[in-house]
Every structure is written in structure tokens, then in C-alpha cells.
Amino acid sequence: MKPLIGIASNLTVESSFHLEQNVVGCHYIESIKKSGGLPILIPFTLNHADICTYVTLCQGFLFCGGGDINPLLFGENPHALNGSGHVELDQFHLFLMEKILSANKPVLGICRGIQILNVACGGSIYQDLSLTGNSTIKHMQSEAKRHFVTHKVTFIEGTILQELFGHEVYTNSYHHQAVNKLGDNLIASGFTDDGIIEALEMLSHPFQVGVQWHPENFIQVGNAMLPLFERLVDTAMQRVVFEGA
Amino acid sequence: MKPLIGIASNLTVESSFHLEQNVVGCHYIESIKKSGGLPILIPFTLNHADICTYVTLCQGFLFCGGGDINPLLFGENPHALNGSGHVELDQFHLFLMEKILSANKPVLGICRGIQILNVACGGSIYQDLSLTGNSTIKHMQSEAKRHFVTHKVTFIEGTILQELFGHEVYTNSYHHQAVNKLGDNLIASGFTDDGIIEALEMLSHPFQVGVQWHPENFIQVGNAMLPLFERLVDTAMQRVVFEGA
Amino acid sequence: MKPLIGIASNLTVESSFHLEQNVVGCHYIESIKKSGGLPILIPFTLNHADICTYVTLCQGFLFCGGGDINPLLFGENPHALNGSGHVELDQFHLFLMEKILSANKPVLGICRGIQILNVACGGSIYQDLSLTGNSTIKHMQSEAKRHFVTHKVTFIEGTILQELFGHEVYTNSYHHQAVNKLGDNLIASGFTDDGIIEALEMLSHPFQVGVQWHPENFIQVGNAMLPLFERLVDTAMQRVVFEGA
Amino acid sequence: MKPLIGIASNLTVESSFHLEQNVVGCHYIESIKKSGGLPILIPFTLNHADICTYVTLCQGFLFCGGGDINPLLFGENPHALNGSGHVELDQFHLFLMEKILSANKPVLGICRGIQILNVACGGSIYQDLSLTGNSTIKHMQSEAKRHFVTHKVTFIEGTILQELFGHEVYTNSYHHQAVNKLGDNLIASGFTDDGIIEALEMLSHPFQVGVQWHPENFIQVGNAMLPLFERLVDTAMQRVVFEGA
Amino acid sequence: MKPLIGIASNLTVESSFHLEQNVVGCHYIESIKKSGGLPILIPFTLNHADICTYVTLCQGFLFCGGGDINPLLFGENPHALNGSGHVELDQFHLFLMEKILSANKPVLGICRGIQILNVACGGSIYQDLSLTGNSTIKHMQSEAKRHFVTHKVTFIEGTILQELFGHEVYTNSYHHQAVNKLGDNLIASGFTDDGIIEALEMLSHPFQVGVQWHPENFIQVGNAMLPLFERLVDTAMQRVVFEGA
Amino acid sequence: MKPLIGIASNLTVESSFHLEQNVVGCHYIESIKKSGGLPILIPFTLNHADICTYVTLCQGFLFCGGGDINPLLFGENPHALNGSGHVELDQFHLFLMEKILSANKPVLGICRGIQILNVACGGSIYQDLSLTGNSTIKHMQSEAKRHFVTHKVTFIEGTILQELFGHEVYTNSYHHQAVNKLGDNLIASGFTDDGIIEALEMLSHPFQVGVQWHPENFIQVGNAMLPLFERLVDTAMQRVVFEGA
Amino acid sequence: MKPLIGIASNLTVESSFHLEQNVVGCHYIESIKKSGGLPILIPFTLNHADICTYVTLCQGFLFCGGGDINPLLFGENPHALNGSGHVELDQFHLFLMEKILSANKPVLGICRGIQILNVACGGSIYQDLSLTGNSTIKHMQSEAKRHFVTHKVTFIEGTILQELFGHEVYTNSYHHQAVNKLGDNLIASGFTDDGIIEALEMLSHPFQVGVQWHPENFIQVGNAMLPLFERLVDTAMQRVVFEGA
Amino acid sequence: MKPLIGIASNLTVESSFHLEQNVVGCHYIESIKKSGGLPILIPFTLNHADICTYVTLCQGFLFCGGGDINPLLFGENPHALNGSGHVELDQFHLFLMEKILSANKPVLGICRGIQILNVACGGSIYQDLSLTGNSTIKHMQSEAKRHFVTHKVTFIEGTILQELFGHEVYTNSYHHQAVNKLGDNLIASGFTDDGIIEALEMLSHPFQVGVQWHPENFIQVGNAMLPLFERLVDTAMQRVVFEGA
């Protein structure tokens, strides 16, 4: 039996009638399916009881890329370079992440997802890479295809990511913000040459991980990034087996 | 405990990177929540085993508005007025609907959803209303707001819809196709003045229903269309109770 | 002292934030001012008591061009060629018009305004000129400037319009609908060569008038259309004087 | 009987024929109505006598958000970062504000409105926030919805705003200019953390107030900002009662 | 000494500020220069005395392609298929053409120019080719380049055009209207296979000619169409010589 | 050694500088490569000697989809429904095709390519499918993806296509024109249910074939259409071997 | 008899067919007509003999606003902030200006025209106002209407402009470049408060003048800027009288 | 017999279906033809064996302008100002260039082509001209036409370019990157006044040359840039003769 992987939906507005929609990119879903998980999409809600039910229902979770988090949610005034966002979506994602962490269930956060993970643990975000003072690499690539790589990420010895990818990996890059102050119990396990944090891991947990790049965009051209999703699904599977026991 | 209502996702392509996405409008989700159901979104898949798992997982189902069904799927050559579509999405929706009907679970089909219901039962679709020969009413409204009504729907005595709404109701209207030949065991329970079928019901089933208009767009301005969603959720609830017994 | 002329606002949606707005074209306002009236704009409302207060407050009224009236409001199903509209704006305009007529106050209806006048009196509208069966003249002009004329209007002997303009006048033309069945107590006082009604007048009233063209667009290039607005203001003035007596 | 609240119209140009229009957003009007006032819209005019009549006619006034004031009107040359404007609209608004202040009637200025209030009293405007030298907060938000908040405003003890809202309030923010030199008899009663003036009040007057944010955008999601509009209407009501006495 | 060829300007509106402009395509001007004439552009005016001065000043004239003539100017009501136009430009062009014809000076009318010639002589225009009842050829071509030919034109024996081009010529084609009733003293000298008039000539005059296609677009790829412009300039030159004598 | 397959380029205009470009879609090229051929692109030219050199250089040829052929090239006047085209590109393609046929070399024509094949042999084209009088199927599909099929093509016994695909095949469809009168020595080997010719073959030649659909769009999702390209390359290979012998 | 005023055309490219056109704004032409001149438009040419003929033909000249002059023409390499231009148009305008100055005829240069005047006399241009180092005023206004003023221009005692306008005048402003090194025999007669040159005059000549603002945009709202055009026409008239004598 | 000149295709994505295409501008092809070469277009491929076959097939080669090279390919991290690119196209072009250089065949690299030449030889690229620290000239021109010149290039004595063009030449300019570290055996033979390298040549080879400007854009207005293409073709011709010997 496949583990149920809950993917947190984003919100967007379609252009013909300006109706708000829940949306999840197919690449994320295909990555979960290719790794042996059964994906369902968790729709936006601010109902805490419903969110707790979703956390109970699924064995693993995925958070996708998206807009900027409202800085008031990590205790800062907004900077002029902070991008557009949706504060209620932030609250949904943060509450969902907190409940997942409390329930000790496996989770993978991608791009905005790594930032949700960090803020849910009490960390903060650089509202724009220019505010780091020393970012010298292009992190918002404009290559012809989403899976073309743009920079290297180097991993720390002894981390899950180093175990999965070895010393370094070349990745794509589509972000203008990054992790600033680390959240509680998180360690930074991957960096670009200019010192930007590209991966986070929860101390002493088998798989509560965030990455700043987009591994899901590689799903149709090869298996280079598949280990990340497989580890999520495998960890969730162990829980299913355990629960079923 | 709330019944789990599975909503079949649609597919769209976002404009910045041309990435395919699963998408469900918020109005559909809000209507389920307001009626006491717990919504999850079922992502696109052609994996039959996974689809069967989704059918087992949920107590009720909702199909939303969307593109035109490929006419080859109901045995016709495409007409020049047939609109754009996605044949693999059609296959996903039709297989999911067939499994729901086999499992005897409650389902509501809206707009494209009523057409999926009809084709899944062996019925056919007018590829464009002009092909009916006698449609005289504007069915693709251009009113300022989605919840503004455009025409009347009259219901047949003794049907579920007549029980819910009485003799007639004024509805919005956003479709250029309509039910043609009825699928097996379906009855037409609602019509506009020009004879277009606006509602279908499965004979002898508590709630396998399709409507051609968009009841979900009324969710933020009142409860006029709520009975439709409440009946779906209530029927699903009875199944939960029964299953839980 | 100038008579207060209430102009019924339209609704539009601005493009940057999709916020709804009340709007009245400057040409309408300038025409009232040039004719000696003091214009105020009556904002959209469905509050009947407030509408009655507005009717009491002003001595004369102006209704402007705009979208199509919802055909359900004059007892017809919508035809595919009926254009976009806003049924709540229709209700505001119709109720305001009815109260003005009841109060016996002077009013000028322009384009959509003549149609509001006719429907408020129980008349009906051709949902598209093609439905008249015999309209042969271009009524939606595409000339370089709004005040360029496109066709002739011929007036009936003994009407107010014939008194103001003589036997005929060349006008601009921006409409795809027209008066069909006349409302109670209204007479058609102007026609184009293809028989389309271009002007209405209330029997035995000094100035309750509608015109299908856009006289306000001539305000900046001359006084040809000024008599229409002056008659409105003058009639309103007599009421002021009388009331003040 | 409801007090008459005159709302100063803005000007815009519609896109199909480039016709100039008077325009007022529905949120402003709904806020007045929800607070018990009867709104009318005062159209653009440079006729001083007519403006005086409008001031006499109404018991309270509202000025809305809009374009930048021509700097020549507060004695400065235009800076390259000054935005687009309409000098005749500025003259209409400034003259109307001056007459209201002379008449001692209550008035609320929102966004551009607070700037009109300040310039009418002899104050000046920062032509762009970058010219303040120390503005560090994003004041032109790009959140998904107009009522999402972006920063805090802290109020001065003993002011009307502190009485209405307490020590602080979280607000939305859509401006690139701000009050610089205070106009005569005005006090700054609200500030953001970077020292930008967010609220002005007239010394010793029950309600001549300006705010830099957009309280009207909250009207459809709750009553948090309603006290501002209610105080305007209540103060106007007292004048009606007094006048009627 | 080169003869002075006056080219009647058209009017257009530039997109950034919506300012009206006088405009003449370079191909027209280059064709005159290549044929030995000295072109000047006659700007739009309704001043009859000035127009007469322009006619005196120049030895030959050219009228270019452009918008549709207002049908009221040739005694018809506008048809729905009549395109956009500028009635004051029509009046300028018609008066200028009449004065040229009175002065017996040479003139070439291209596309709209042939229609101006015909109406100035009392003729009429098919407001759309569909109204001819028998036009079967595409006259509004969509070829990749302006000088690609689309149909044949056959000339009448004994006409100027037959003298210049022989029995037939292949031409480009960009028009939706055409000459209907011939103006006084004009003869039709060229036709397409579906009977549409493609060329007009004034009886007993050395060169008062109109063509429905665009000979100027061939100027940069060869001399096929040059005889038309050379004949205009040569006829004008004879006048210069005569006048100078 | 791989056979050299010459692909005839099309022309397009890029949007930033309006520069004309030679262009060939990657799907065509990938189809040749996957089938074992070595593709080169033959650029547009009207130089007959160079075209003959290209024909000598390559062992097989491919013509791609594109714009409409100028009807003058097959002896018809242009119809209003004929689309945009480039007569010089037509001349390049027709001359190249004629030389290939004279040289007896294998060639595959796709979409516009089948039409070039037919006209090069003296055949004609329906300028629009509506002119066939009996086309009832949608031939310009609007499906979400290029490789989604829209209709069936049935093949004639004993033809190459029947040998490659069997009795029938489901194909995509993107054309508004079709083969009318057959060119010399060509036979129609495939039809849709409404009688439109979907495939042509040269009598007694191993592979001079045209198809009206787009087989190259299937190259990335499977091998269903590969036999067509493989037969082209294999026939070309036999010639290489023969020539090399 | 009216003096003939030659207006140098600009070049633009129309958007439908990318055809190059000669163009002159109506405001320039109306200003000449209102001042008693007879305008003709001089089309683009690089033929020096023809240009000399144009100079002989007219009694006065006007140069309009337009694109940036190629810096190579005043001896500088192009700076990144230099805008788009047309070097052949520059050569036409410069040669025409030089011949006018040689012929000692009156000329008015507006915006780009003042820059043509300066370069024709050997002067240079600031390629962008930011390169002046001390320009603090917005010179590219974004006001709602072209005739709204944005800054003051102060004139030098004893100049023609001071004679026409007095000590100072408020003007509109639409330029990002300005006069740098003065051309031979030119004096700067007007400045903004930040020291930018806004007017030039030729020493000891009755009217060879350039202004950096757009006086022609005031023609439809009043006579404030008319003296500039009247002086041009009057000076030209004296020449006509003299020549005619 | 003409030498075969292989032109390396670029990749683009057409806008209607987002299909990837091989593309080469006509100006490049016309320049080769005018110089006596026979052009073929080499389509994109990563198959090394096929690339070697293309190198063997042709006697000379041309590389065109295009997107930015991925900096990882010359050992740098991407800078934020690096533009969009296609890393697989880079790999195709670099491998093709390397094989050409190994085969000692003549090649001309234009714009992106000079950068491919430099990187293939181990050199590096300034990712943006602003990173040179001393570029003061506009290298991305915005002139009305592609062949208008914008700056001077000065050549080094004794180089091929100096032999072809003399001491200096005025060129157009469309690039934001430039050669940084020279590749092995390359010399810089041309510079702009701000020291940017505008031409490269391979030491001791008759014609392996790169230029940073666009000589092909001059092909339709004259022969100024023709020597560059003629030298490529002549050198290739010598090889043909030699091979044929």
C-alpha cells in the first residue's frame, strides 16, 4: 500500500473571471508518484480542526514554491523589495507545517517551502538577496528550460542531503529571498559559493527537509533529483507500516 | 467526524513558464466546507489503481466546470465548433466517474461535470448549442458578476432537484455544450425554456446528480444554492456513519 | 439659484486592482453646467429609502449611456446577442426612474437612458438590432471622433424634439439595441430611415424625454445639441421657482 | 434624517474612446452608507460659486485616493520621481477643501486626501518617499488583496485616532508620497516605525482628519476601520441636528 | 526644374499621447521622387482659400490610401460594414480634388484616392465588397510583403492604363470597398475577373487617373509600376513648361 | 554512413527587429534523427542552380507545415478565405520539389508539404475546407497538446501508408486547406470520414509521399508515427548504398 | 498673401505593415495657421538639391519634437542613455537647417528642433539630463494633459523671448536631453531653475529661435504661447513683402 | 563549384504552440550567397558523430548572434546581469567550433559567434559590460534601422581586419557582453574607444575570425561589410580547390 502524501495547495487568480483557485504544479505531483507515493492536494483553509485532520490523514507532506511570506509573520516590517504575497495563505501553510512538525511526520519543503519550514520553526527570511550584502550569484535564472542548471550547491558532511547527493550538485535556481536566521533545531546543510543557504534539515529527524531550488523540474528529463522525493516517500512508508502494525 | 469529499482537479498551464498545473476553484471548495464536508483535491492521473484508491478513500465526490470532452470518447467525429480540450484529462475524469458510480457513492457534477456524468453512463453531448437546432436562449452569459442570474430552470416533479429547489430557480449560465442523448439510467430533471437539459439524476440513487449551471458561484452572496452541496455532504455522511458502524 | 440635476452613476471596474467604481462621463456633466444646472452624481444603491431622498433632493435628472439591461427585467429570456450588463445597476436605475416619473420631475435619458425610461414604463427592448428584421443602417459608428455624425433622425410633428430641432437632425450613433414595445404613455418622436426609434417622450409632460444618440459628445464643438439639455434645466428651474414660492 | 456626505470625484480616462470621466470607488461609498450617511458625488468643476454651493449643500465630506498633486501648488519644482497628475483636479480639490475648512465642516481625507488637506493648510509633500532619506518600510504593498495589512501605525496620546483605534493599528499601504512640512493648525497623530506621518488632525476641531492608508478597503471584510467613517458621519449628523434646530 | 507634386496628407492618432498627426507613407513620396517630381505634403485643412492656394502652388497631385469615406457624402446611409473614417478629412480631400479638377491639373488617386476622385465627380462607393453581390476574389490580401501580387487587372483598349501597362497586369490589393456608380465624365479602364472596377480615368484629360491597388509599394523592388507615377510627373512638367513660357 | 536528408526551410519574421528568418521546427529534425538520417536545412533561395546543387547533395527530402500557397500558382484567383502566404517561398518550395521529383529521390511532405507535392505535380488546393461543400469534421484542432489526436484516417488497400499503418490511424489535424484536384501520377491513399484527402503517394515510386496531418509532433511521446520517417530514411539509404556502389 | 511656412517632417513606422511614414503633429500645423501662415510639410529626403529648392520655396520654417540626434553627428560616442534615433533623418534635418541659416530665413525649433539648431551651428547635446550633474527638476512630465505646465522658464533681459513673454513663463516639458555646448553665434535666452537651457536665439537675427518645451500643445486651450508662432510668421511675412517688392 | 558554408542554427520557441525551432536570420544567408558561397544550415544536435560529419561536409562555417553562454562553461558562477540562454545550444556550438578549429577550417563568428570562438579556445566573457568597469559607450543601440552605425572600431596593424577595412570602421552594435580573457592563440584585432574587444583572430590561420558587431545587417544597403564574408568564402574555396586537386 502506498503512503498518502499531502501536498499543500497554493492560491492563484485565473485571468478570465478573476476567480481564486487552488493550484499545484504537475511536476510536484509526478515526482511523488514516480517515487511511489499517492498524492492528494490539501486545499487552502484557515480552519484549524480541518488542518489537524489533514495532518492525521497523510503519512508525508510536500510544500511547493510560491510567493513571499508576509514579514510581519517573522517579526519584521516589510522592505520595499519584498514581493507580492497572500497573508492568509501564509497562515494556512505555517499552521499546517507546525502541526506536521508536532506530529513528527516527514515533510519536504521546496523553494517557498524551505522558507515556510524555517519561519514555522521561528527563523527569519532575507526579504531580498540584495539585503544579504554578499550574494554575488544569479539566483533567479532565465535559462530556456526549467531543468537547466545555473549554480552548484555544496553539502555539509553527515547531513541527509550529503548522503543523498554526495559533496555537491548542480541545480536550477528561481528565488529572490533566502533563509536568514535559522529556526529552532534546524541546521543548514547546503550552500552556494556566495554563502546562501540552499538546504535545511531538522536535527535528529529522519526527513524534515527544505531545499531552495526546484528538484521537481527535473522529473521528466532524468532521475538526478529523484532521491529527494524517494526519501520522503520511504520515510512516510515506514510510518504506514508502523501504523498498520 | 466530517465526510471526506474528493474534488477532481482540472489541468491548466500557467503563463510564465508554461508549466502544467492541477487546479480547483475556491468557490467549489468553499461550498463543500460551508456544507460540512472536508474537501481534498484528487490530482490528475491515468493510474487506474490509484484512482480506485481515491474512490475508496472518499465518501463523496465533486466534478467541476472545465473544457470540452473529446468527442471520440462518445463516438463522434469532432465538429468545428467543439472547443479546446485535454483528452487525457477526459480519460481521468471518465474513469474516476465510472468507479464512483460502480461504488455507488454520491457525486455532484457541475457544468463539465454533468457532461462527464452523462458520457460515463454512455450518453452523448451536443458539441455546440447551435447544433441543437432550437436553442434560443443565451447560455454563455456576460454579466458583470458570476452570481448574476441569466435564465430560469424548471424542474420535473418528483426529482431530487424539485425537492431541493421547488418548481423553478433562476441560475447563472456559462456553457456552449449540453447533454444530448441521455446516458443509461439517467433522467433529465431540469430544463430551460428552450428545452436544453440543465440537470441529470441517477435513477434510484440518493445523490448522483449533475447540473449545467454554476451553483458554487453563489456561495459568497447567500445560501440559495447551498442545498445542492448540503445534500451531497449529507448523503456522504450517511455513508460514513454506515461505514463506521 | 441653479436647479440641482441628479445624474445617475454607472458602475465600472478599474483595471489595476479590479475595484468597482461609480463613474459618469465629463461630457454629460459639462452639458448640464453649460445649460445652467448644478450637477451632482447619484451613486449606485439598492436602498429604496435613499433613492427616494435623492429624488426629493434634485429638481431634474439625467441618465447616461451604458451596458445592456437584463432582459428578465422586461420579461424576456436573454438572447445570445444580448451584451454584458449588471442586473443590480439595472435595478437601481429602474427604481430611480420610476420614482422620478412618480414625482413628475423632468428627466433626460441618453442611449441606455432611453431604454431605462422605456422599461420603467413597461416597454421592451430589441436585444440586438439584427432582431428587428429590418434595420439596414449602421448604428454603432466607428468614426474617428465621437461628435462626427453618422445618420439622420426625423422627428414627428408636434413633439418636443421637433420643437427643439425642427424636422430632422444628423446625429452620432453608438448602440446595438433599441426600443421595441413602447412603454405606457410614451410616444416615439424620432426615427432613423430604417424605422428604428431614436427618441421617446412622455405624453402630457413638459420634459420626460429619451434619445438613442449621444448629444453630450457635441458639447465641446458647438451648441447644436444644447437645446436638449437647456430644456431639461429650464423645466427643472421652473420647479425650483415654484417650490421656492 | 441622514446627513449628506459629499465625496469629491476624481478624473480618469476610459480606454475605448479616451473620454474623461468622473469616478469614485464603491468602497468609499459603501463605507459612508454603512456608517449612516447619505453619499453624493461632487463632480469636477473649477466654478468657485458652484463649489461653494456644494459646501453649503452637504454636512460632511470625503476625499479619496488618487494621483500626485502638482508640486508648483505647494511651492516646489517637480522632482523626477513625482508621479502623474492633473493640475486642474488639484485646483478643484484644494479649493473645495479650503471652503470646507472655512465652513468648519467635518471632513475625512484618505491617501491623496490627507495630502490635499495638508497642502490646503499650507503644508508640503515629499514628492517620493525616497526623498525622506530614512523611509525603510514598504509603503506601496503588493499583497494579493487590498485589505491585507502590511505595517503598523502608532498613534499619539490624546488624538482622535488614538481615541478611535487605541495605541496602534495594522493597516494596508498604497502610497509613494507623504506629508512633509505640516500645514497650519494640523498635528501629526499617527506614524509608521520609520517616522512617516500616517495621520493628520486639525487642532480643536471635532473631525477634520486625514489618513495615509486605505480604510475603505476593509469595508467588506469587517468593521475594524468603520469607526473612522462613523465619526465623520456622526459629526456631520450633529450639524444637521443643529442646523435643523 | 522639377514640377511640384502636392500629396494630400491623411490624419492618424499616435498612441502615446493620442495626438492627431498628418501622415504620408514614404513609398508614395519615393515614387514621386524616383519619377522626377518634387513632393510636398499638403496638411489637413478646411480653409477653402488655403486649399485654393495649394492648388495654385503645385503642378500635380497625389491622393493616397486611407479610411472609408462617410457615405452621407455620396448620399447614402451608412451600412454596418462601412469602416472607420474621418468626415472632416473627407471634406478636405473632396474639396481639394474638386479644385484640382476645376483647375484641370493632373492627379493620381490611389486606393482611397480613386474613391475620392469618384465621389468628387458625383459617383458612389460600394460600402463593402460583399454588397456588390458578385465579388468572388480576395481583395484584402494577407501576403507576407506589400509588393506580392494577388490578382490580375485587365485594361480597356484605348485607355491611358492600357497604354502604360498593356492588356493586363498583376497587382497587390488592399481594399474592402470599390467604385459603384461612376462619377461624371469618368470611365472605368481596369477590372478584376469578378468585375470590380480597379481603375478610373477622366475623359479627354491627359492624366486624371485613379487606381484601386497600391503601385507605390513596388517602388523598392523594381520599376513595374513606375510608369504610372512618371506619367503624372511628365504631365505636370508639361504644365510647368507651359506656365513658365 | 547515414543518408543526408534535406529539410526545406520556411520563412518567418521575428518580432523584435522584424528581421526575416529561415526556420524549421525541432520535431521535424528529431524525427529524421531518430529514424537514422542526418538532417541539414536548405535555406530559402530563388537561385535555380543552387537548388539543383542541394538536390544533388542530399539523398532524401522533407517538407514541413506552413502558410498557404498563392492560388495564382495553381491557376486560381485568390478566395477571401485563403490565408496569408509568401509567394517567393512558394516558388522556392515548388521548384525544389520539382527537381526532387525529376531526380526520382524520396521525399515526405507534411501538411503544407503535401500541398506543395500536389501543386508541383499540377494539382490544385481547396483554398478553404468550407469550399469543399461537405467537410463536417474539425480539421483545425484546439487540443491542449500537439500530439493529442482528433480524427481517424482510413487508408486504401495496397498503398504504402496502408502497409505502414494498417487500415486506419488516429491523427492530429491542423489545416484549413486540402488537396482538391490530384496532380499527375499521384493517388490519394488516405481519407477522413468526410472525404478529405489526408495522404498522397506517387505511383510506382518507393517513397514520394504526402500527409496532411503532423506526424512529427508524436516524436517525443512514442513511436506510433515513426514508420513514416523511417521509410523515408531507409529509401534514401538504399540510394546512398547504390550511389556508393 | 500668407507666407509659406515649411515644416520639416519626422519619420515613424506604422504598426500594421511596418511601413515608414512622414509625420507632423496637427498642433504644430494649427499653430502656424492660427498665426497667419500657410503651412506645407517638407518630406524626408537626402537630396541636397531638392532641399535647397524647399528652402527657396518657403519664407519661414518650423522644426518639431522627435527622437534623439546621433551623437556621432556632434563628435561624441553614444552614451548608454542616449535614446533611439534615425541618423538619416538627422542628416536631413541638419542639412535643411544649415541651408535655412545660410539663407538667413526665419526658423523656429521646438524640442528636438532646438537641438537641431544647436548642432547645425556646431554645438553639442547632453545625451541625457543625468549627465549634466546638476539637473534636479523633472523635465519629462507625466501630467494628464499635454498643456498642463510643469516648471518655470526664466528669460534673459534683451532677448526676443523676454520681449515676447516677459521675465518668466510656466511651460510644459517633455525632454531627456538638452543643449550642452552652445553653437556658433547662438545665445541661451531661457533657463529653468536648475540651469538647463530652455531657449536659444541667433545673435543679430530677427527670428532664428529654439525652445525646449512644446508651445504648440497650448494651441487649443488659449493664446499664451501664440506670440512665438506669430513672430515666426510675421518675420516671414516681411520677407514676402520684401521679395514681392 | 561553390564552397559549402555551414551555418550553425540557433534555437527559438514560436509563440502559438511553444514549439522549439531551429532558426537562422536571412541576412546571414544572403551575405554568404552574395559572397559566392553555398549556405546550408546545421541543425541543433548533441550527437558528436553527427557534428563531426557536418564539419567534414562543409568547407567553411558561420556562427550567428544569439543568447548568452552559460558561465559555468567558462568556469564562472552566473552573475545577476547574465542574460537568458540555452546550455544545450551552447554545448552544440562549442563542440562544433572545437571540431572546426581542430580541422583547421575557416570560420566567422558574429556577436555571440565571437564569444563562442573565445570560449572554445579557453577564454572567458564579461557577463555584462557594466562589469568591465570602464565601458562608457552604448553597445546596445536603439537606432531606427539595423544598419545604422553607432560607434567606431579601430583595428590593429597587421591583422586581417585591418587588411580588409583599413584603420577603422563605423559599425552597428547589439551586445551587452564582450570578450574578457582571451582564448589560446587568439589575438584581439579591433577595439572601440572604451577598450572593448570588437574583433578576434586566430594566430597564423588564414581566416578564423570573430566580430562583435553585425556585418550581415548591411547586406541590403551596400557592400561596406562584404569583404568579411568574401574572405570567409574565398578561404573556403581554396580548400575546395585543394581538396578537389
Automatic annotation (TrEMBL), chains A, B, C, D, E, F, G, H:
SUPFAM superfamilies: Class I glutamine amidotransferase-like
CDD domains listed in its UniProt record: GATase1_2
GO-annotated molecular function: hydrolase activity, acting on carbon-nitrogen (but not peptide) bonds, in linear amides
Keyword hit for Hydrolase: yes
Sorted UniProt keywords: Hydrolase
Keyword Cell cycle: no
Pfam family, one: Peptidase_C26
TM region positions: none
Gene3D superfamilies linked to this entry: 3.40.50.880
GO cellular component: cytosol
Superkingdom of origin: Bacteria
Record's protein name: Gamma-glutamyl-gamma-aminobutyrate hydrolase family protein
